[in-house]
Design goal:
Blueprint (H helix, E strand, L loop, with lengths): L2 H29 L6 H8 L3 H7 L3 H26 L3 H21 L4 H7 L3 H23 L9 H12 L8 H16 L2
Helix pairs in contact: 1-2, 1-4, 2-3, 4-5, 4-7, 5-7, 5-9, 7-8, 8-9
Length: about 190
Amino acid sequence: MPKLWNETIEAHRRTVHDAILDATVELVRERGLLAVTMSQIAEKTGIGRATLYKYFPDVETILLAWHGRMVAEHLEHLNQVAEREANAGRRLEAMLETYALMHQRMARHGFAPDLVTFLHRSEDVGRAHHQLHDLLRHVLADAARAGQVRDDVPMDELAVFCLHALQAAAALPSEDAVQRLVALTLAALRES
């Protein structure tokens, strides 16, 4: 097949794949994890059920694929934030702020606890968490070398502290509250 034809087919497949993911998440938000069927997903996406089954065998697989896409996008965004700043302290602050705001925005999207629990049992989440931890540990180490973060606590422990502290952003009512949480976390990182 000509290259253009292959590229067009692949672009169409990506478009359908993404539409399936987005439609599924929207339905789950509206109806709940256990109330969504493959027929509803096919209808919302505007494709036949047979086509849907060519892409995914069940609702759970679709949700895991959507979550994998979101996690990859979040990691990529955090990497970009970390690379944008030359100053080690500002890089750390930007990364922590971005991470906290991601948690707050995800909580606002209305994901029920059963869906969150389901999505976070995936092995991919564990790998992504390790990548995030490693990225944050490196950013913390750079800030410590620059004298902007305490160095009396191992960087691995500081990374764990930051990740857990900033998950609280999911329960905060405003971006101002998230900013205060980030400031508090940074203050704890600077005290020795």
